[in-house]
User: Fold this.
Amino acid sequence: MTLVFATNNLNKLKEVQGLIPKHIQLLSLQDIGCTEDVPETQNTIAGNAIQKAEYIKTHYGYDCFADDTGLEVAALDNEPGVYSARYAGAQRDSNDNMDLLLKNLKDKSNRQAQFKTVIALQLNGELKTFTGICKGEITKEKHGEHGFGYDPIFKAKGYTKTFAEISLDEKNQIGHRGKAVNLLVKYLINL
Assistant:
């Protein structure tokens, strides 16, 4: 089986490649010659994932899956949510996003948050979605050198280290994307 993972994010691609069974050939957007920005204009995380998967299927003809992820912070009415990547502006800079989030939480005692990933699979003319959630909290400052996005300020429930301080394998076991990909893999194995 060959599937396209509709992402230009090499960090996401690396994370997912480690979780997909070896008998499934995973292609990137670069592998299929998709160089344009795939639209993400929906107002929900699931909507963006579905939109990206449908775009690749329609324009390139490949069975594929796409994900969208958002960080939902309870004290900020679940912001940044669907706007997580561009929270601090169109430049999509992780440090700017983290700095704005920490500033907006400065006077808040409730630091509960969750990462939510939705994967949309377009396969054999059918659409399926898989959701992974990792609950935790936002730290008061950045810690760690690994990971990407908000990883340096997100600590999963029951952990003392941020996502940026743990290994990729550990993050895949407890994280939102790992949970969603595991649901996807179980579905693919049982076809």
Notes: The chain has a mean pLDDT of 94. Residues 2-189 form a domain with the Maf protein fold (CATH 3.90.950.10).
